[in-house]
Every structure is written in C-alpha cells, then in structure tokens.
Design brief:
Blueprint: E1 3-4, E2 14-18, E3 21-30, E4 37-38, E5 43-49, H1 53-68, E6 73-76, H2 89-98, E7 101-119, H3 134-143, E8 150-165, E9 170-180, H4 185-202
Parallel strand pairs: 5-6, 5-7
Antiparallel strand pairs: 1-4, 2-3, 3-9, 7-8, 8-9
Length: 207
C-alpha cells in the first residue's frame, strides 16, 4: 500500500541492478508526520521536471505507472498542467486542486557528468629464462599475452526524488540517487521508483 506512517528521520542506502545501468540511492530523508497519511486509491501526481517536453511526458507516464502499481492513482502531471503552464506556480496550484490531487512524486536531474576510469592490464614482464630460446619464449609469450588495460567513460546522472502531501503542502520524503549509464527512460524511471519505494519501506515509511 502507498501509506505513509509516523517515523523518525534516517538515511539509508540501497543498490539495485538495472540492466547495463546501475542505480543506487546515496541518501534519503523523511519528515516526522502526525498520524498516517493515506495515499491508497488517491490521486498522486507524477512529475518529472524537464525542459524537454517529450522527456517529461515519457518520464511522467512511466512514473505514474509505478505509482499506480503501489496502490495510489498515478496521474502524469502533463495531463493536468501541460507545457509552459508548468512554470506558473499559482496556475499549477489551482489546477492540481481542481484535479483533486492529494500527493505528488517529483523527480529532477540535478547533475549529469562524464566519469573516466582506468582498468589496469593483467600482464607483466618477467621470467627471464624463457628469453634464451625462441620456442621457449613463444610458449611463455603467448601464455602471458600483455593486456594494456583500457579507459572507460561512464555517464553518471544524479536525480533527486521528492514525495509531497499536496493537500498539506508538506515534504514527506526525499532521496538522492546515482545512476551510471542510463539508457531507456522507461527502465530508468522504473528503477528509480522501485529504489525509492524500497528505501521508504526499509525506513518504515510505507508498507
């Protein structure tokens, strides 16, 4: 169930696999609340903050699906507040109230950087007695073929995920995640949402 319960704040870390990409929540936080806040069967806006509308729509559609899978009614925010109107705070507030939205899950990329790493080779130079004979070296050389190692460039994306009670206008939970080499946005959002749910469940914040 998508149910928030009273709990003291604590930071946890979880790692999950997502194909060729990898995601880990590097920090999380939750606010103490007075009594349970039920989102079961209630409308929860899925919000992906992006200047690119196609990215926003694809991300919010995937996020809404993940929210609905956890007992609430996930609603892509672009269906309520499309395009540039998302930048109008007062207008967005009015539309969310008219749409009877109780909660919101917001995801926003906070950094995207290249990370270069070097993996050393496995070969070495030695065993000098083998050098005296051509065939002796042949047997040795091919058995110890030098691996020069390689440079690897990864794309590292940091995302903040926030859960709000829209009715109370209050932050309930926040997490920061690190994803290496995300490729498919559907899978990316799915794994972020799954990781966030695991973090909140481990902290006792949802069932």
């Amino acid at each position: 169930m998508f149910r928030f319960v009273k709990v003291c704040g604590l930071a946890t870390t979880a790692t999950l696999a997502c194909g060729c990409a990898s995601t880990s929540y590097v920090s999380s936080w939750q606010a103490p609340v007075d009594g349970p806040i039920q989102f079961d069967n209630k409308r929860v806006a899925a919000i992906v903050v992006s200047a690119d509308e196609s990215t926003r729509r694809a991300g919010e559609t995937a996020l809404a699906r993940e929210i609905s899978a956890r007992g609430a009614q996930g609603v892509p925010s672009y269906t309520i507040i499309p395009g540039e109107s998302a930048k109008d705070k007062d207008g967005a507030k009015k539309k969310l109230q008219e749409a009877n939205v109780d909660g919101a899950v917001i995801m926003r990329v906070i950094s995207s950087e290249q990370e270069i790493s070097y993996s050393p080779g496995t070969g070495w130079y030695g065993a000098y007695p083998y050098y005296g004979s051509f065939y002796g070296y042949w047997g040795y050389g091919w058995g110890m073929a030098y691996d020069p190692g390689y440079l690897r460039t990864d794309r590292v994306v940091m995302v903040e995920t926030l859960v709000y009670s829209v009715v109370q206008d209050k932050l309930l939970w926040a997490g920061k995640s690190k994803t290496t080499n995300p490729s498919n946005i559907q899978k990316f959002i799915s794994d972020l949402a799954d990781g966030a749910a695991k973090e909140m469940r481990k902290a006792g914040f949802i069932d």
